[in-house]
Amino acid sequence: MNKKDTHAFVNQLLIYTLVMICFSGSIGLGTVWLRHQISLTANNTKLLEQRIVEAERHLSELNTQVTGEQSIDVLARRNTEWKLGLVLPKEPQVVRVSESPERRLASRNNAEVFAPEAVITGTVTPVRFRLANNSR
């Protein structure tokens, strides 16, 4: 019976060794696969960053071209070349308002009511409120 016990121990040791080799091999294979995926993701990220930099460079070039074409000298030259007959505006086209727009519009709409001439001529009539139970 001694021989059978030693063979059983050797068989168990051999099976455990094979299981450990397979387990560590699968862990190693998983590690290699994960590193490969990280490498692929890093390469894709690098390509995307290069495309973003190229798009930003192209956009800045286009902005420079547009700014150059919008200058007054270039516009005047194109006007004479193409015989458009356009003239430069004499007054500023953009007016900045520093006060509150609501107050400005309200004062513009109610200018005739609160005008000094209306008070002097007496065309403004005061508003009187009466209670319903008061006979006056």
UniProtKB/TrEMBL annotation:
**What keywords does the record list, in alphabetical order?**
Membrane, Transmembrane, Transmembrane helix
Superkingdom assignment: Bacteria
- In Swiss-Prot or TrEMBL terms, this protein is called Cell division protein FtsL
Species source reads Rariglobus hedericola
Q: Membrane-crossing residues?
A: 13-34
